[in-house]
Amino acid sequence: MAKAPSFKANQNSFGRMAAQAARECHTFFFCGPDESAASAAAATIVAGLPDAGERVDMSGSDLRRDPVRLADEARSSSLFGDSRHIFFRATGEEAHDALKIHFEAEGEACPVLVVATSATDKSRTAKLVAGAGNTLVAMFYPPNLTDMANTVRDLADRNGLRLDGDLAQRIARASGLDRRLAEAEVEKLALYLDAAPDTPRKADLSAWDAVGATSEEDGFMPLVNAALSGHAKRLPGELARLNTLSLNPVGVALAFERRAAQLAQLSARMRPGEDVGSFVEAQKRARRIFFKDERDIAEQLRIWRGKRLDRLVSRLTALHQALLANSQQAELLLAQEIAWIARAASR
Question: Which pLDDT score is estimated for 81?
Fold first, then answer.
């Protein structure tokens, strides 16, 4: 009997196949440098599952220590015998051994969704998932400004908001090209205007100014750029501003992750020995870099390359997980990691 097919998607094709994959697949592997889009895709699949039921959260580190646990949990019933699905975040190949045991185990299992930061669709884990049949492997790259502005307009349509291209780009920039932050800003704007799909409202700059980030300078990026560029003397003032504005630590961490992912994507495009300044200028002309970010990105690309960049991505992923698990200590954990980043960048 022929093996059941698997789905393979990227940010462009995922939307077209999501509904079918949610109906037909049992395991979903979301990877690539755009963790925000991967997480949003996982949420889309959960919403499309015929009977999602209870969510069971696991971490990649847990499964690395106890790889049998996934197979056991996937074949266990919930406390009240209801349906369930398993969701876990992993780094790199952390999920490989657990998924291998899961695929080899007998008995009916619930849906399993994996968001794997620092993994690609060419990784061992992705190939394992794709080879199992009735699975989805989806790879997500960071969007450029135009892509995110289009996403903002789609999100606005779903929330009953009509907005023009200039406002969509402004929201995209203010969210640091992060889909989750952009979605939160759109929902906030829809709530302010009392908009809904059946009662649409037009959003303009005055409404955005009333509820959105007051400007790029009041957002996360000054702190991100100070740390990643090794400007340690600017850190005390930026950390004080973080406290004064009550910036969400997870949001700040996401902004760091977004820039690190952007640096990884750009670094992969560079040819050996290519001049950083000329490369960044070319990427700006191709609209892969916003013109206001040109100087900061050029400076950071000279610092964060190769193994140093890989280590930064891994630490930021671990920081994100730590912030979610220790909300009371989030500001302290964030400040400590930002200090490490600044020291590493200044060496």
Answer: 59
Task: Please tell me the distance from the alpha carbon of residue 156 to that of residue 171, in angstroms, as a whole number.
Answer: 11
pLDDT class for 245, splitting at 50, 70, 90?
A: low
| Domain end point (choices 97, 116, 139) | 139
Whether 2 maps to a domain, the answer reads: no
Residue 78 has pLDDT above 60, yes or no: no
Q: Are residues 21 and 133 in the same domain?
A: yes
